[in-house]
Amino acid sequence: MTQADALTGKLFTFEGSEGSGKSTQIELLADELEKMGNEVIVTREPGGTEIGEEIRHLLIHNSAGNDMAPEAELLLFAAARAQLVRQVVIPGLQEGKVILCDRFLDSTTVYQGAARSISSDPVSYINQFAASSITPDLTFILDVPAEVSIARVKRRVTDLPDRMEQENVDFYKKVREGYLLLARSLPERFHVVDGTRALKENQEDILKTVLEHI
Ligand code: T5A
After folding, report:
1. For ligand 1, is residue 18 a contact (CB within 6 Å)?
2. 3-class state of residue 89 by DSSP
3. Kind of pairing, strands 10-16 and 138-143?
4. CB 70 within 8 A of CB 169
5. How far is the CA of 46 from the centre of ligand 1 (A)?
6. pLDDT, tens digit (0-9, with 9 covering 90-100), for 63-81
7. What pTM was estimated for this model as a whole?
8. Residue nearest atom 27 in ligand 1 by C-alpha distance
C-alpha cells in the first residue's frame, strides 16, 4: 500500500466496462469476506456518499448531461471521488476495514483519458488530487469484449435513460483497450479477470487473490 502506515485497511477496486460483472463479483466477495470475520465496506463511484450520489445523478441520468463538456465531466467525477475518499475511504482504511469499491480513479484514466481523449497530464493530476494520493492495494479488471458489454447492458431494464450507456461500440472498444493498457503498464497492481467466464470461476479467482493480500 502506498499510503501512510496508519491506514491499516485494504482498498480493492473493481474496473471494467459496463456489464462486465463488477457489482456481481463485489457482492459475492463481500459475503465471503464477512463470513470470514472481516469488516467490509462496499461502495461505488460515482456515488457512495450523499453528495456523490447527487453528482452521479447529474452525470449519468440527467438529460442535460448530454451536452456536458468532457472537461466538466472529468471534474464532476473527481468531485464525487474527493468526497468519497475523505468521507468513506480514508476513515475505513484507518479503522482497518476492507473496502471494495466499484470503480475508482482508473475509470477516469480510461473513460475521460483514453476514451474521451483528454490529455493524460490533467487527468493524472486531478485524479491524484481528488484521491488524496490514495492508491488501491489491488485492482481487478473484469475484461469483456465490447459486444458482450453492449449485450448485457441492453438486457437490463431501467426506467431512466443512462447517458453513459448510450455510447457506441467504438467507445466500448477504447474503454477495453484503455484498461488492458493500464494493466500491462502496472502489472503489480492489476489483476485481469476474463469477465466472460462462469461467475463461480471468477468468484474463486478473485477471492483467492484477495486473500493473498489481506
Ligand atoms: N465513469 C465512472 C466515468 O466515465 N469516469 C469515472 O471516473 C467513473 C467513476 C458508471 C458510469 O460512469 C462512468 C463509467 C460508467 O459508464 P454505472 O451505472 O455505475 O455507471 O455502470 P457500471 O459501473 O458499468 O455498472 P454495471 O452495472 O453496468 O456493470 P457491472 O457492475 O460491471 O455488471 P453487473 O455485475 O451489474 O452485471 C451485468 C449483468 O451481467 C451479468 C449479471 O448477472 C448482470 O445481469 N453477468 C454475467 N453474465 C454471464 N457471465 C458472467 N460472468 C457475468 N457476470 C455478470
Report:
1. yes
2. helix
3. parallel
4. no
5. 12
6. 776 789 999 999 999 999 9
7. 0.95
8. 19
